[in-house]
Design goal:
This protein has 777 residues and is of the alpha+beta class. Among the domains are: 91 residues, Golgi alpha-mannosidase II (Immunoglobulin-like), CATH 2.60.40.1180; 113 residues, no CATH class; 145 residues, Jelly Rolls (Sandwich). Strands 18, 19, 20, 22, 23, 24, 25, 26, 27 and 28 form a ten-stranded mixed sheet that branches. Helix 11 packs across helix 13.
C-alpha cells in the first residue's frame, strides 16, 4: 500500500513486517483467534434491520443490541483487513469477502449502509434549523456518526490493506450520501451537529480525498473539523477540562491529516501537536492511558479510580502519535508510543480468552474487568479487535536512504526497495540486548536506532562483534555503511528500576523498569467468580483490600527493592510496607491478569508519615467501602448505565467543581436507577455546589427548591441558597427501610417544587449522587 500522506518518514507496508517469537507475537495469535470466532451474519444483523430486512441470524448483545449497533462490524473489518495484509490468511479472506458482498447487497439506493435506520441523520439534513442534539444524541439517536465512522473506516481499510475494490465502491457511495446530506448545513449548523460525538468522520473524508482526489471529500472533511475544539488548540490553549476524552482524539487525528492535505491556514497541525503535548505530558497516567470516567479532568490530576484509562483513548492516541511521528520524525512520539503500547494496549487483552478491557483501573487493590463474549461489544472491544493487528505498524520507518528502528520487538523486515531482509532478534524487555541481523541483500543506507528516554547509563553498540563508537543525532544512534548479508548490530540498553512520580502528588509513585511499568500482584482474595462481564462498571464498588503505604528513611527506597528474577522482571519490596510490614512482588503490569494489583503506591519518609496521614487513609478507605453505587451526571456511560430518565432537563460541566451537573426547571425532572442493600438501612449522599442559589435566566427568576423521591415516595426537600461559598455542599438523605425491602435497585428522582403559575423552581444542579450503606463524610 502506498502511504497516503506526504511525510518525512513512512511506515513499511503491512506484510513487509512480521512478528516473530515473543510477547507481541503471542498476543497477536490470541487476537486472531478472537477475530475468527465472529459469526459474520450476526455482525451484519443490525444492517439488515436498518433496511427493514430479515437478518440471517440474531445480532450480538450488549452495545450491538442498542443504538451503537454496527460499530463492532466496522472495527472487525479493519482488523481483518490488517491481518490479511500481514499474512494472507485464506480463512480471513473468505470471511471478509463474504462480509463486503453482503454489505454491497444491503446498501440502499442513496448509498446508505449502517447498523441503524438512516432517519435520524436525514431528519438533521432536512431540518437544519431545528434538530435535536446533545453530547451523545443526534436526531433522537445515540451517537449516529460515531457508529457510521467505524463502518466507513472498515471499508477504507478493506480497500487499502485487503485490496477490495468493492469495499471502496461501497465507501464512495456511502460518502456521497453523507457529503450531500451535510452540504445542507451552514457552518453554524454544522458546528451544532458536531457537538454530538461523531468519531473520526473528518479523518474518513480526508482519507477518501487522499485516495480519490475528489475535492468534495476534502470540503466535507473540513466541514467535519470541529472548530470549537480545534480553535483553542491551534492557539495553544488547553480547554479540555470536562470534555469527553475519546470524543476529541479522533477529531485531532483528522486535523493532523488535514494539515498534510491543505495549506493549513487554520492551524490544524499546530492544534494536533499542542493536543498531543498537553494530553501526554499533563493528562496521562503512568501507563500512558488517560481520562477518568471517560473525561479529561483538571490538568495534572492522576485520580486513582476504577474508571481510569479508557482503552479506546490509547488506541486513538497511538494512531495520532504514529501520524505525528511520520510528519516530524520527532522521536518523542515513539517514546510515548512504546510506553502506551506495552503498558496499556498489551495489558488490555486477556491472554487466555482474547477478551478486552474498557477501563484499566488505577485504583490500588482493584483488578482488570474484561468483556464477555455475548453481551458486551463495548467501544473498547471494537478497538481492541484492531490492537493486535497494529503491533507491527511502527516498529520500522524508512525515508529514502534511512532506516529507523523505533520499537524493540522481535520481528522481520522486508525492505523491498533496498532488497534487504532484516531480522530483529530480542527478548526485550526481558533482556537488555537487541540484535539486528541482515539476512538478505546488500545496500548502502543509514541505520537510525531510537535512543530511548528511559535508558539508564551508556548504551553500548557492537557491529559484527566489535564494540563501536556511535554518533547520535536527534535522539537516534546513527550508523552509516554499506550493509551486507551476515552483518549484525548488537545494542545493549541498560535498564534499572526507576520511580515515576504522579503529577498531582510527589508522594504518589509507581515503579518502572526501562519502559515497563511494574505493578504489585496482590492475589485473588475476595475476588469475584468471574471478571468477564457484560457491564464494564459492575465491580466498581466491590470491596477491595487497602494497600499499604511505603515508609522509608529519606533516600533509602532502592535499598528495599530486591531483584527476584530479572529474566522475568520480578522484584520484591521488603520491610517498608506500613502498617502490615508485608512484602510486595512487582512484575510487568502487562502480565497481570485475573488478580488484584496496584500500579501506584503512596510513599513517605519516616518523618512525613504522621498519625494524621494514617487516619485520613483509614477514613478514605471506609468511605469507598461504604459506597454502594454512584452516578456522575452529564457523563454518558454513568447516566446510561443508571437508566437515566428526564424531561426538560439540562446538563453541563463546571470548571470550578471539576465535575458535570444536571438540573431541571419547572415541570421538568430527572431520575436514576441505583443499587441498594435490602438488608440494611441505606442513605443517599448528594453533592451540590455551595455557590448555587437563585438563578436568573432570560428574565425569569428560578428558586432552587426541589423534592427528592425514592420510587415515588418523597424522602427529602432541598433548598440551595448559596449555603457554602466556593465549596461542595454535601447533603445526606436517609432512605426509609420499607422502600428497600426485597429490592436491589431503586429509582431516585429530583423534581422542582410545585408552585403557582408565576413562581419558578429548579431542581439541582446535582453533581454526584451515591447510595451508601453507612453515612461517612
Amino acid at each position: 500500500m502506498e502511504y497516503l500522506y506526504q511525510s518525512k518518514a513512512q511506515p513499511f507496508p503491512l506484510g513487509h513486517v512480521t512478528l516473530t517469537e515473543g510477547i507481541f507475537h503471542d498476543s497477536y495469535k490470541v487476537g486472531k483467534q478472537y477475530l475468527l470466532k465472529f459469526d459474520i451474519d450476526r455482525l451484519l444483523s443490525p444492517c439488515y434491520d436498518a433496511q427493514g430486512k430479515t437478518p440471517e441470524k440474531p445480532r450480538y448483545g450488549g452495545w450491538e443490541a442498542n443504538g451503537v449497533s454496527g460499530q463492532t462490524l466496522g472495527h472487525w473489518i479493519s482488523a481483518v483487513a490488517h491481518m490479511i495484509a500481514e499474512e494472507k490468511d485464506y480463512n480471513l479472506i473468505i470471511k471478509l469477502n463474504y462480509c463486503i458482498y453482503k454489505l454491497s447487497e444491503l446498501q440502499d439506493s442513496d448509498g446508505y449502509v449502517g447498523g441503524f435506520n438512516k432517519t435520524p441523520l436525514e431528519n438533521v439534513f432536512n431540518n437544519p434549523n431545528n434538530f435535536q442534539v446533545d453530547g451523545f444524541g443526534l436526531g433522537g439517536h445515540w451517537v449516529p456518526w460515531y457508529s457510521l465512522h467505524k463502518i466507513f473506516a472498515g471499508l477504507i481499510d478493506a480497500y487499502l490493506f485487503a485490496e477490495s475494490k468493492e469495499a471502496l465502491n461501497i465507501a464512495i457511495r456511502f460518502a456521497d450520501w453523507a457529503a450531500y446530506g451535510v452540504s445542507h448545513l451552514n457552518d453554524a449548523q454544522m458546528e451544532r451537529m458536531l457537538s454530538c460525538e461523531h468519531g473520526g468522520m473528518c479523518e474518513v473524508f480526508a482519507d477518501l480525498y487522499a485516495i480519490t482526489h475528489n475535492e468534495i471529500y476534502l470540503i466535507t472533511a473540513e466541514k467535519f473539523a470541529h472548530k470549537e475544539i480545534l480553535q483553542p488548540l491551534s492557539e495553544e490553549r488547553d480547554e479540555l477540562c470536562g470534555r469527553h476524552a475519546n470524543t476529541q482524539i479522533p477529531k485531532i487525528i483528522g486535523a493532523e491529516k488535514l494539515h498534510r492535505l491543505t495549506e493549513d491556514e487554520f492551524g490544524y497541525g499546530r492544534a494536533a501537536r499542542f493536543f498531543w503535548n498537553t494530553v501526554t505530558n499533563k493528562r496521562s497516567y503512568a501507563i500512558g492511558g488517560n481520562s477518568v470516567h471517560e473525561h479529561f479532568g483538571h490538568m495534572e490530576d492522576e485520580i486513582l479510580d476504577t474508571q481510569t484509562c479508557e482503552t479506546c483513548n490509547t488506541y486513538n492516541m497511538l494512531k495520532l502519535s504514529g501520524h505525528l511521528y511520520c510528519d516530524t520524525l520527532d522521536k518523542r512520539y515513539m517514546d510515548y508510543y512504546e510506553k502506551a503500547l506495552y503498558n496499556h494496549i498489551l495489558a488490555s487483552q486477556d491472554p487466555e480468552s482474547g477478551e478486552k478491557t474498557y477501563f484499566v483501573s488505577m485504583k490500588p487493590g482493584h483488578f482488570k474487568v474484561y468483556s464477555d463474549w455475548e453481551n458486551s461489544f463495548w467501544c473498547c472491544v471494537g478497538s481492541g479487535l484492531e490492537n493486535p493487528t497494529r503491533y507491527v505498524e511502527h516498529i520500522y520507518h524508512e525515508n529514502q536512504e534511512n532506516l529507523y528502528v523505533n520499537l524493540f520487538i522481535s520481528s522481520k523486515l522486508n525492505w523491498e526497495d533496498k532488497g534487504i531482509n532484516l531480522h530483529q532478534e530480542t527478548s526485550f524487555p526481558f533482556e537488555e540486548t537487541v540484535k539486528l541481523k541482515i539476512e538478505k541483500g546488500s545496500s548502502e543506507f543509514t541505520m537510525n536506532i531510537r535512543k530511548p528516554e528511559w535508558a539508564e547509563g551508556p548504551i553500548k553498540v557492537w557491529v559484527n562483534g566489535a564494540l563501536t563508537e556511535i554518533s547520535e543525532k536527534d535522539g537516534y544512534l546513527v550508523l552509516f555503511r554499506c550493509w551486507s548479508i551476515g552483518d549484525v548490530i548488537k545494542i545493549r540498553f541498560p535498564m534499572e528500576v526507576m520511580t515515576y512520580h504522579a503529577k498531582d502528588d510527589n508522594n504518589k509513585i509507581a515503579f518502572q523498569y526501562g519502559p515497563i511499568m511494574l505493578a504489585a500482584a496482590l492475589g485473588r482474595e475476595n475476588f469475584p467468580e468471574t471478571d468477564c462481564v457484560s457491564e464494564q462498571t459492575r465491580y466498581d464498588f466491590c470491596q477491595s483490600p487497602e494497600v499499604d503505604d511505603l515508609v522509608v528513611p529519606s533516600g533509602e527506597l532502592f535499598n528495599h527493592i530486591y531483584p527476584v528474577d530479572k529474566r522475568k522482571l520480578t522484584f520484591e519490596i521488603r520491610d517498608i510496607a506500613q502498617p502490615s510490614g508485608k512484602t510486595f512482588t512487582l512484575m510487568p503490569f502487562f502480565m497481570i491478569h485475573h488478580q488484584r494489583y496496584t500500579v501506584y503506591f503512596h510513599m513517605y519518609t519516616d518523618k512525613e508519615y504522621t498519625h494524621e496521614i494514617l487516619e485520613e487513609k483509614i477514613r478514605r478507605f471506609a468511605f469507598v467501602d461504604a459506597t454502594l453505587d454512584i452516578v456522575l451526571p452529564n457523563e454518558q456511560q454513568s447516566e446510561i448505565s443508571h437508566n437515566a430518565r428526564s424531561e426538560d432537563s439540562n446538563s453541563g460541566y463546571s470548571k470550578e467543581m471539576g465535575m458535570g451537573w444536571r438540573d431541571a426547571k419547572d415541570n421538568g425532572w430527572f431520575a436514576y436507577s441505583m443499587q441498594v442493600n435490602p438488608e440494611i438501612s441505606n442513605w443517599l449522599r448528594a453533592n451540590y455546589w455551595g455557590n448555587d442559589g437563585n438563578h436568573l435566566e432570560e428574565g425569569v427568576k428560578y428558586e432552587r427548591a426541589f423534592e427528592v423521591y425514592v420510587d415515588g415516595t418523597l424522602i427529602g426537600m432541598q433548598y440551595l441558597n448559596k449555603n457554602k461559598q466556593d465549596s461542595k455542599e454535601i447533603v445526606a438523605y436517609e432512605i426509609p427501610q420499607e422502600l428497600t425491602i426485597n429490592k436491589n435497585k431503586i429509582e431516585v428522582m429530583f423534581r422542582p417544587k410545585t408552585g403557582s403559575s408565576n413562581e419558578h423552581y429548579m431542581a439541582g444542579g446535582l453533581y454526584e449522587l451515591r447510595t451508601m450503606k453507612n453515612l461517612i463524610e
